[in-house]
Every structure is written in C-alpha cells, then in structure tokens.
Design a protein that fits this description.
The protein has 161 residues and is α+β, with helices and mostly antiparallel strands. It has helices spanning 50-63, 70-79, 84-91, 95-103, 110-123, and strands spanning 11-18, 27-36, 43-46, 147-152, 155-160. The protein contains 5 helices and 5 strands. The longest helix has 14 residues, at 50-63. The structure holds zinc ion.
Length: 161
Amino acid sequence: MKCTECGTTMKTQRENYRYDESGLKKVTLVGIEVSRCPRCGNYEVSIPHMEDLHRLIARAVIEKTTRLTSEEVRFLRKSLGWSGVDFARNMGVTEETVSRWENGAVPIGPQADRLLRLMVAQGRLTTTYPTERLSQINPKKATPARLQIEARDDQWELVAA
Ligand SMILES: [Zn+2]
C-alpha cells in the first residue's frame, strides 16, 4: 500500500490502537492492522465490523457504574441514531441542556443518565441489560470506561473492561 500523502510504501503491522475517532478517551482496539508511512508519518487504520464494534462499546459503557462522561453521552446518543434535537425531545429536556451535557459544561443528572442507558439497552442491544447496575451508579464520579477490544474470529470481543 502506498502513502496517499507522499507515495512511499507503507508498512503494515498489528498494533494496539487508541480509538480516539470514537470520541471516547480510553478505548483501545487490540491488535488492529495499522499501515504507517516511514517517511511522513501518515497512517491508515483498518477497523473491521464497525457496527458490531460500536454496539459492543455502547453496551460496555451502559454497564459501567460511574456517571456517564460528556463524551459517552454523545457516543450513546449517536449510537441511537439521534440528532441533538431528537435526543432533547426523547429525554424531555431542552436542546441547550443536551449541548451542556455533551460539551461538559454540566454533568448529566442521575435520572437522565439512567434513562439514556435504558434507551440504549432497549433500542439497539438485543442481549439483556442488568438493570440492577442502575442503582450502583455513582453520581459524584465520572470516569471514562477503560476498554480493550480485540477482533477475534470475525467478531469483536471485550478483553478488558
Ligand atoms: Zn507518506
């Protein structure tokens, strides 16, 4: 494969890749094929089964027991296929409130946090969601879900959470 920037042949290898494109801060894809240009530093990442991957991330995020971070609120909202306007309407809040949750100006409240999780669990995920987790969510602490995800046998798997 040639570099799209400078035409040099790129070197492909498997790496642990921080999936910042997800908008989340601590999601690592384990053993992903990354092609790097030795001359200019340009790189390309090959991420298979994107839809499954996003479903798995959403699933892991709604099962964590600390408050959702602003990045996670945005990720989950998008995973539902909703615009900010849709989200405001479905949550029963103003669009400004949604913006504040997503840009980190104000933390999402405990009820909205639970409701969003339930909507994600209900809307897109086929497996059962342990609702008892809702009572364990710590409203005082927002730590990002730290995930390591590996593509195994054509399927995404959570290797560490
Ligand atoms: Zn290059």
